[in-house]
Amino acid sequence: MEDRTIYEMIGGESTIRKIVETFYLIVQKNPMIGPLFPEDITPVMEKQYLFLTQFFGGPPLYSEQYGHPMMRARHIPFEITKERADAWLICMKTALTQIDLDENLQSILLERLSGPAYHFINS
Ligand code: HEM
Q: Is the CATH number 3.40.630.30 carried by domain 6-119?
């Protein structure tokens, strides 16, 4: 059994940074979900960096700043359909491929993210 966290397995802070930076460039160009995001994406990237760090087993950076994640609730203002959840995950898959993350790790990350992505569907 692998007893390291996903955070450790993927290479910690620098990898999460790369994922987030690559992911939002792709998201911004995606016609299905790009328009939901503000033009200045930097604050969203920072929050996502804090959140994914914690979500993958690193230090609880998001909660230290923003309290309980309540991620489904935080997505309620946005119309999230099944198609948009799919698009979000495809953008993430593209980002993980672009940064050359190991394929087994890609599958683990996508599997872990697909739970919340489909759980956030609200429309
Ligand atoms: C299912 C498709 C998804 C869509 C369409 C979506 C869209 C959005 C949008 C529009 C925002 C707000 C941006 C702003 O501040 O104006 C946001 C925030 C955020 N999303 Fe998503 N999201 C999705 C899935 C996810 C998933 C799967 C995760 C992580 C597991 C996630 C993590 C976050 C985080 C951490 C924030 C910042 C929350 C905060 O304001 O503190 N999102 N998302």
A: no
**Per-residue model confidence as pLDDT tens digits over 39-59:** 999 999 999 999 999 999 999
Quickly count: other Cβ atoms within 10 Å of residue 102's Cβ.
Answer: 12
- For 9-20, b/e burial (b = at least 16 CB within 10 A) is bbeeeebbebbb
pLDDT in tens, 17-38: 999 999 999 999 999 999 999 9
The answer to whether the CB of 121 falls within 8 A of the CB of 78 is no
Q: Are 90 and 106 in contact (CB under 8 A)?
A: no
* Among protein residues, the one whose CA lies closest to atom 24 of ligand 1: 117
- Domain-by-domain residue ranges, the chain? 6-119
Q: Residue 1 pLDDT > 70, yes or no?
A: no
pTM above threshold 0.85: yes
1 CA distance to ligand 1 middle (Å): 32
**Measured from the CB, is residue 93 less than 6 Å from ligand 1?**
no
